[in-house]
């Protein structure tokens, strides 16, 4: 079931159907998607720069006194909302707010975040007016090669089940050790699933969803 359309954010008042009816969080979510956020971690500043490519983004996410600059904090605020929206999570990550020895920054889409973008992609693209010539930052061929050449995928494709497939074959697919914390395994799994959805790889989505059902111990 596609996620609900509504996201927690502010929107400008205007006539129904106008581009201004987009939530700020929708603009940010779409920018993260275009930058390859299902496949890799994207820095807050890169997301802010992408948002500022859009006419609507330049209206919503600019400094008040120096409107030629993007306001990264407004982007970060939208990302924080997307991370926790009515008990759901469209992104995972954090902005750089730590001490010098803990300055990690970056965001990824969750599978639910990808589902939302894919369901609304035409509406978002038309309203935001994506800059011409911009290409999606996903290497679909490399991703497919990685997954479909794995022993885990080959075993499933042969039997349409995981019968007799040991746990380590699944964890190897995720670049995790069999005794890795479940939180690490789940994060790696969600990144694969989000990427598969982003590139419309229905066969890989089916495989991953079946794997989650079979290797339940990793998701407890």
CATH domain class of the largest domain:
Mainly Alpha
Structure annotation, total helices? 10
How far apart the termini lie comes to 23 Å
- Count of strand segments: 2
CATH fold naming of the largest domain? Arc Repressor Mutant, subunit A
The pLDDT mean sits at 85
Order of helices and strands: HHHHEEHHHHHH
Computed Rg: 19 Å
Low-confidence stretches are: 1-5, 8-20
Please state how the strands of the largest beta sheet are arranged side by side: 1-2
Q: What best-fitting shape do the alpha-carbon axes yield? A: elongated
Assess the beta-strand content as a share of residues: under 5%
Profile the largest sheet: 2 strands, antiparallel
The portion of residues assigned to helices is 40-55%
Please, how many domains? 2
Q: Which secondary-structure class do the elements indicate? A: mainly alpha
CATH homologous superfamily title of the largest domain: Winged helix-like DNA-binding domain superfamily/Winged helix DNA-binding domain
Name of the CATH architecture of the largest domain: Orthogonal Bundle
Quaternary organisation: single chain
What is the element layout, followed by pairings?
Layout: H1 24-34, H2 44-51, H3 55-60, H4 72-83, E1 91-94, E2 106-109, H5 111-128, H6 140-148, H7 151-159, H8 167-173, H9 182-198, H10 202-214
Antiparallel strand pairs: 1-2
Helix pairs in contact: 1-2, 1-4, 1-5, 5-9, 9-10
């Amino acid at each position: 079931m596609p996620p609900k359309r509504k996201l927690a954010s502010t929107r400008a008042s205007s006539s129904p159907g106008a581009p201004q009816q987009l939530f700020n969080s929708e603009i940010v979510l779409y920018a993260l998607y275009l930058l390859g956020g299902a496949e890799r971690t994207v820095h807050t500043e890169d997301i802010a720069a992408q948002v500022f490519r859009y006419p609507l983004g330049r209206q919503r996410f600019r400094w008040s006194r120096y409107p030629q600059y993007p306001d990264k904090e407004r982007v970060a605020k939208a990302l924080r909302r997307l991370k926790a929206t009515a008990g759901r999570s469209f992104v995972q990550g954090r902005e750089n707010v730590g001490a010098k020895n803990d300055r990690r920054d970056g965001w990824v889409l969750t599978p639910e975040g990808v589902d939302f973008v894919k369901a609304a992609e035409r509406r978002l693209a038309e309203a935001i007016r994506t800059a011409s010539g911009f290409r999606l930052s996903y290497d679909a061929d490399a991703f497919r090669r990685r997954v479909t050449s794995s022993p885990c995928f080959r075993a499933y494709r042969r039997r349409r089940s995981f019968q007799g497939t040991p746990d380590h074959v699944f964890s190897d697919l995720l670049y995790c050790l069999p005794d890795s914390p479940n939180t690490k395994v789940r994060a790696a799994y969600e990144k694969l699933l989000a990427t598969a959805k982003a590139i419309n790889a229905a066969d890989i989505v089916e495989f991953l969803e079946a794997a989650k059902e079979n290797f339940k111990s990793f998701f407890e």
